[in-house]
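@channel anyone free to eyeball this complex?
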Amino acid sequence: MVEKVFESSDDVRHATPLKYARTVTFDGPVRLELGGQLPSVTVTFETYGHLNADKSNAVLVCHAISGDSHVAKHNDADDPGWWDIVVGPGKPIDTGRYFVICPNLLGGCRGTTGPSSTNPKTGKPYGRDFPAITVGDMVALHGQLLDHLGIQRLLACVGGSMGGHQALTLATRFPDRVAGVAALATSPRLTSQALAFDVVGRNAILRDPHYHGGQYYDKPTGPNVGLAIARMIGHITYLSQESMSQKFDATRLQPRDVAVEFEKKFSVGSYLGYQGQKFVERFDANSYMVLSMAMDLFDLGGTPQELAATFAHAKCRWLIISFSSDWLFPPFQSRDMVNALIANNAAVSYCNVQSRCGHDAFLLPDDLASYGELLRAFLANLTGKPLGDVVEEKPSHGPTSIFHKRRVDYDRIVELIPPGASVLDLGCGRGGLLRRVKQKKHHRVVGIELDEKLVLGGIYRGLDIIQADLNQGLVAFADKQFDCVLLSQTLQAIYDVEGVINEMLRVGRQCIVSFPNMAYRDLRKMLAEQGRAPKAAGLLRFEWYNSPNIRFLSIADFEDFCQSHNIRIHKQLAFNTEEDTEVTDNPNLNADLAIFVISRD
Amino acid sequence: MVEKVFESSDDVRHATPLKYARTVTFDGPVRLELGGQLPSVTVTFETYGHLNADKSNAVLVCHAISGDSHVAKHNDADDPGWWDIVVGPGKPIDTGRYFVICPNLLGGCRGTTGPSSTNPKTGKPYGRDFPAITVGDMVALHGQLLDHLGIQRLLACVGGSMGGHQALTLATRFPDRVAGVAALATSPRLTSQALAFDVVGRNAILRDPHYHGGQYYDKPTGPNVGLAIARMIGHITYLSQESMSQKFDATRLQPRDVAVEFEKKFSVGSYLGYQGQKFVERFDANSYMVLSMAMDLFDLGGTPQELAATFAHAKCRWLIISFSSDWLFPPFQSRDMVNALIANNAAVSYCNVQSRCGHDAFLLPDDLASYGELLRAFLANLTGKPLGDVVEEKPSHGPTSIFHKRRVDYDRIVELIPPGASVLDLGCGRGGLLRRVKQKKHHRVVGIELDEKLVLGGIYRGLDIIQADLNQGLVAFADKQFDCVLLSQTLQAIYDVEGVINEMLRVGRQCIVSFPNMAYRDLRKMLAEQGRAPKAAGLLRFEWYNSPNIRFLSIADFEDFCQSHNIRIHKQLAFNTEEDTEVTDNPNLNADLAIFVISRD
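replying in thread with the prediction:
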């Protein structure tokens, strides 16, 4: 095992110097998952910040297919890194707080052993003799690197796209080595569509006459056209339709004058030609073949059951982030993973960031205020010191995000939850109620919220929040998975009332529902005497035409509903929130808010 | 000008025999839009059914990039056509009623003059000497064919994808030659994303060493790899992510054993390899280059203004159909066209068919019940004989589709519309009210409806219906574009009340709004005396938890709303629908339904 500071580009094809990279060589044979082996493996990596005394602040960043160890610049004079906006002093992955490690991948061409490295047996590059590798092999090597650095357990592993695949694999293969995994724009396996694009790219390389069966290193020309075609295809899939439109529509027929031998009729054509050619200058075709095949073979499971079984090995806390316009790794794939983690009662937060940037969104500044802050909050939660309340913004009044104030009914809901119960809060907002529940030492506390900003607010407060639309149901959750499900002052904003109530009764042993009572005395009067739609302070303060409330019911209506839907009422409480008192005398007339404890049995 | 029955494949590269194809040769020189010319042009075409005596039943079907003249089989023994499910006796384009013509495209390789045809000057195939062509050139040739057939004016021109481009061009270039255009899965121009895929495909051909600058016809091998790569890319873009998942997920690692020299690791790979190779056997690479470039250059306008200016030349009636999962020609592009047609006061119907099949949906049976019936109804409307009421289904209760019954308030709404006024009905359902309005000889009558089935129902009735969600606004419509806008018994089902009312007041000189009155005596009593959410017959017959109605207002509330929003009330009527009487005494108490005539000024 030899470590040296990386100085020359001898081992690296098409490399610009990586001034701060280090290498370590592990003697082999290194046995690989698919049966191959390598006599030895060299890893090139870079580190940032300082490892603390108890070695508890290490964050491993895994790069995607065309990345390298240079995740960020080491100082102002250094070359730009590929994730400078995320990694650095004061950045979301704050190198002032965390010790960041980023290795080049096994199979790559930027210093770590790959097809362009010298095969000691022949003295020539491996070429197609380089054995097939898997994401598991890459991650096993990450493990060896951590051993070498004396790090037993990472605070976190972070990765996007194929970097996400590595992070997911680390969590499931080496559960004791990582406290938290943040996986961005990734998936449990490629969609058939994404796989198809990779296949076409590899075919373009494979059938390039200059490929020479992979032994092109001593030839005057490699499979440059094939690799450029593969990169062009890839590039399109990394962008969204919207972002391409933004970039190219206005200059459609005004291509840039680039010196490439590809079609240059359209602006998007000159761009792709240039990108393709630039990639050929810095990347090795065999590396591309080997890495894209490893990505295509990556498969954590094709069914919810398989996925849950894979994730069952993990012990970490999770942050899953998808991007709405990412069609290569579509958001539903992240939701599949979240659902599998939920099935395992794993601690997981999820957000589908509204973005126009497609798959590349996690590399771009456009949505950094969302995904960057989610990362920052998640890492802080892993250290046990949540960042706390974000600056209080105007309360959101979206359909599933009624603003929670401290009130008498809140205290009663918290009291109604059985000691030690696991709790799911539907429409949890920024987690005001949930945080109070958690402070009572409930062992498992999860919130569901639709609004992206509120999700972030909840995670800032140290909670596990899953972004979801209640109207879509609670498919992720198993029958009776929670002791107690809360639906606090949200019922009246839900379109599919029967669906949501049925789902919460399925998922919770007991459910606590609170809602405003439309038959409250003052409201009755308003309609009966003034002939106007009822309106009141608090939840009913809106006008008929702009209220988030779209369902109007009385306590008596809800009692009828429970009876007709075979719902058992365990307890019902009523309040006059204006007077901040509990109401026992004729609640349907005298109370403006009701709390029901119900269950299916 | 010579016509002969097409017998041999002499002029056709890679052709299987087209038994019923005919050809006609037009002597040139044929001058082309981009400056080139051809000494003569041969068109291969097929016809179906019989031209009627007044030559008013001709339907031109335009094929997409890889199609040909064989749109359907001519009899049971004939080879399958590419649109057998749509064209034939009793089919949506009923060859028992219509005379169907389908020509192979200029630039193609299935009998019509293209790059593989013999250049009379050299005695060899044109190859890359074939001049650049446009969709306009293709359509000009369609015009010559129609002249040859003695058809002055088509009943309709129908096309999907690039076939749609031709149909749109015919309507705008030769407005007197077509009564109706049905354009499916098409666009005013390609998105930059779609363009990018074409560029990569052409690069794969162009840089294939066997391309030989396009003069490969006398070489042992043509650019087969490049063409196959281009086809594979194309094929992926024709399918949706969902349909590929359905096709390949289950057999991911079980490729079919096909004899192709492409990667066969995955099932999707063996499929694409096979498709690529099959295409090479039947298609000419230069044709692909020429046709895809013509498609990429097609551009009816990049802004709403440009598009509207292009469409201003057209005189026909329109049916625009998009497919929800089509990401190559995304639905928003069809909506852009519909909006431009609306701006021109053109007669247009639009439906975005909910489909899992992607761009190819218009060729597949899955959604035929939608797009096929839309086509059938549209063609019938063009003959002046609408198919009439579809079998009455259960009324839909979606947010913008309250079921209309014949009632006193309907009669009053029809009476309230000024004579000859142009009328827009928001949430028109199956067009029950609108049809009655139309019968009063209003010159322009348009309906908006969200539910796909109801849209079809309205078109069956001979109406122009545009599928749209009212909550998204009326962006397509200009200020004061309609004399009268109707919002009949729909207000209470709209979430964004202020948005929709503002929009209707912007678009209509006058607006007629009807809604149920929540302060009706019986409803007041229900809340005041029984303590239950008001419910009644008719529109308010639903339960609080499953009602399509999500806004509750009284007549007094609406009066207040008008005052606070600077809305002028011209007239207000009230009804007791149970008694079927008009109410003048204290309507806010005695009426259960109100009609307001309002305007912004």
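from a first look: The radius of gyration of chain B is 28 Å.
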